Amino acid sequence: MATKEQIVVINRKRGSLKSSITKLASFVTSANSKDRILCETKLENLQKIKVKLGEVKNEYFEIVEDKDLEALENSVIELEEECERLEVSLKTILTSSNKIAVSTNKDGNNSESLSESVHIRLPEIPLPKFSGQYQDWQNFKMQFENIIDSNDKLTDNQKLFYLKSTLSGAAAEIVTLDDSYSSLFKALTDRFDNKRLICNSYFNEIISLDMPIQDSAKSLRQFVDSCQKHIRALKTIGLELNEFAETLLINIMIKKLDKESRGQFELSLVSADLPKWSNFIDFLEKRCLMLENIQSNVTSKPKLQSDMHRKSHSFFVKGDSKNVCIACKNPHPHPLFKCGAFLKLDPLSRLNLIKNTHCTNCLSNTHKIHQCFSDRKCKHCMLSHNSLLHINSNSGIKRNKINQNAASLSASNQQNENCKVINSETQCDLSVSLHSKREVHSRKNKTSALLPTIIVYIKNASNERIPVTALCDSGSENSFLSYELANSLGLKKNKINASISGINGSITQIYSKVLADISNGNESYRRQVELLVIPKITDFMPSQDISIEELNLPSGIILADPKLGQQHKIDMLLSASFLFDIIEAGKYTTDKFIFQNSKFGFIASSNSEGNFNHKFCGLVTQNEPIDD
To answer: Over the range 333-370, which residues count as b (16 or more CB within 10 Å of their CB) and which as e?
Structure first.
């Protein structure tokens, strides 16, 4: 039976050895090949520490009870593993020092120049990593065997340490009974060196390659590189391409190309013989170079030293003040039902104050009562208005006046989300979105304007195609996406620092953009676009529902927006370059509307301004640093 004093003494020995190991680790961190003699001394001391650790472990075995032995033994094993790591590091430094010494002896005449080159410290070569993916096994195995397995100067324990450090995921979960290097490497080989599964993984990768975006050099280059990578990997495991495999592979890959590329490939064939895989790859390489040259010539613009900003313009901007409380004029946001100034007013004054700007049910300024989802009603009369707007019957005013006022607001224009706007002279909070709406009240005219909208399919982070309603703006040099849609798609946002100038010089900051793949319904048109992310594009469009059934459109006219004429949400605005890229021959005109054919179907717009309840006007200028 061990006494308490004996265990305390052994623990002190272990603590002293741990302190020595910690100091040695600090030395190794800062040591280099110039400290050769000192490293040899430290290595000798390390061997002595390892011997003493073995003695401490034996003493624990002799006097400690079984219930306490495991924890104490593990503490010693951790120190032994740290010693092995330090031993590897010291031997690596000494090996590097020996190589430099040999090189110095061979080039004695150039000792001065060599002494200067010794100070150049090359970066360490990282070990290959393996996470358990079958297609990565062959490459990992080859590199690890060349770097570690074939190194005779490393012990099995050191090789085991290196092997474990390279594993992650499913590969790291593999364990063996004796926990040795050879057994672990064999277990990994038995598990992942499966030719059939490796081939299947490469075949699946080839078949699931994404279609390259039309006329995109970058997308086509990625497609070619991926094809080549998977074919080379199959060759490393002994699968060579024969005539049948090449023909089948070309047939699969060419169906992923756009119509123009397929036509160009057919023109490149000079005979009726079956094309070879090398011919197909050569064609794709040449097409990549052609697209890169064309895009480089189009996009390259000289930078002027005197120009600090690049300006782009976008029409259809909406601006209205909303951050400032309508009752107390306080710029700090707070609920209207908690505003002291609002509560001091009588119900009728409250109604007159908010009826044109707020929902009369929930008092929100982001929507009107006909769009309110709140199921709350007046606690006094159980009608659809806020309790703070309830007027008692003995006041001489009919109670239903509020509901009549609320109903009259159902056709009023939508309100926009808040975002910070900076004026050139003063700073104030304004609500700005892409569409400046000037209300022109008219009792007689109830018509509304049609603006060109289309249904665009945009890929989300899971590579799924999501339909979105987009507005085509012939006066915009940039395209835009709402925050809400960008977040729901899960697209990666890239940080930028740009600004948009709107009506009356108001400015709103843009802090992010996304790169998205968009297409039409049948994917005959695909394009990659850069979209600036903003809080909101515009209100529901059109301002009022417009009936187009009475137009009796010809059967051949397929609308680009099937919901044309119905109020619906706009989450994307596309620039002039996009609009003119999709226009095709074919136009149909009526007294009030124009229908223009495009790659998405027929786009509609009003034939004349008319005398509408709501008119759209505005101008936005984006100021963005050239070097951003």
So the answer is: eeebeebeebeeeebeebbebbbeebbbbbbbbbbbbe
Nearest 10 degrees: CA dihedral of 558, 564, 568, 572?
Answer: 60
Q: In what order do the strands lie in the sheet with 583-589?
A: 583-589, 593-598, 603-606
What is the spatial distance between Cα 596 and Cα 600, in angstroms, rounded to a whole number?
10
> Residue 104 in contact with residue 114, Cβ under 8 Å?
yes
Q: pLDDT tens, 498-539?
A: 877 665 556 677 888 999 999 998 888 999 999 999 888 876
For every residue of 373-420, DSSP letters joined together read: ------TTT-SSS-GGG---GGGSS-TTHHHHHHHHTTTSPP-PPP--
Distance of CA 352 to CAs 210, 323, 389, 401, 611, Å? 58, 19, 10, 11, 27
Alpha carbon distance, N-terminus to C-terminus of the chain: 74
In the chain, what are the domains?
Answer: 4-97 (1.20.58), 134-193 (no CATH), 198-291 (no CATH), 336-389 (no CATH), 453-606 (2.40.70.10)
Contact 141/189 with Cβ under 8 angstroms? Answer: yes
Say how far apart CA 101 and CA 78 lie, in whole Å. Answer: 35
Q: Is the dihedral of CA 548, 550, 551, 556 positive or negative?
A: positive
Per residue in 297-315, pLDDT (tens digit) is 654 444 444 444 444 445 4
Tokens of 376: 């709350």
What is the value of pTM for the model shown?
0.35
Reduce the DSSP state of residue 300 to 3 states and report it. Answer: coil
Least Cα distance to 385 among 404, 413, 398 occurs for: 404
List, as one string, the DSSP characters of 460-499.
Answer: -TTS-EEEEEEEE-TT-SSEEEEHHHHHHHTPPPEEEEEE
Asked if residues 17 and 76 have their Cβ atoms less than 8 Å apart, the reply is no
200's CB contacts (< 8 A; 6+ apart) are none
- Amino acid 503: pLDDT: 59
Output phi, psi for 394, to 5 deg.
-85, 5
CB-based contacts of 38, cutoff 8 Å, min separation 6:
27, 31
Helices (H), 300-388: 340-344, 347-354
